[in-house]
Amino acid sequence: MKIFNDAAKLQKWCLGRKRSGAKIALVPTMGYLHEGHLSLIAAAKKTKADEIVVSVFVNPVQFGPNEDFDKYPRDAKADIAKCRKAGATAIFMPEPSAMYAPDHSVFVNEERLSAGLCGARRPGHFRGVCTVVAKLFNIVQPDTAVFGQKDYQQAQVIKRMARDLNFPVEIKVAPIVREKSGLALSSRNTYLSEAEKESALAISRSIASVEPGRRAAKERQRISKALEKAGLKVDYVEFVDGATLENVKTTAAGVCVLVAAFAGRTRLIDNRVL
Ligand code: PAF
Question: Does 151 sit in the ligand 1 pocket, CB within 6 Å?
Fold first, then answer.
């Protein structure tokens, strides 16, 4: 497995591989890899790509000033070992200075799907995500890129960016990986105390309990109450059209229920497509 820290070197290698006819799959991550990330690598391998490039980069531009950029968990050594074991052929681990020049001044903004949900609560977040993913697409020039459904809105925003900016990349979205308890895997779960982890189970439980054909407003209320009762602070509970992310009135098939809630100081998100 090749290890790159330099964007230009990785780009040169990827272009060379493509010229030789190789197909490339990209798995963008922020590291501290868990089974969820490994499932993305497995999905990338399924595309029969010749090269599986995993990027590990805690992207400062997608964190707000009061968010957890500094304390976001990092473990480069373990990530390298996990990528190697999972069958990645290259890993890209740049320093922020290798991705952003001091006078970096071009950003990518998706203006519709980013407006609500996490975009409304985390101003600038999707601008940071789109910018770094566009850069990764230009550096790696992948045929396929794999993202997790755990970040449902992010996956929709990236699909839209790829479509609207004509990136020749097929975007694949891999299902959420959960603990046996139902808790969706996330690097941020490491912040949780045992008690917070227990409370957090209310998120997956409540979205699992939604059935089709109900009034979304009532279901929102019911879920919010259940989350509060478990000791969580609700950031949002929304029922949206899975493609447009616009609010819907009924919990029909194809509708996505999305939840963001705080367990202590840790913000957790989860979702389910009905
Ligand atoms: O989902 C993530 O881990 C990040 O938002 C991504 C897509 C790697 C961009 O930094």
Answer: yes
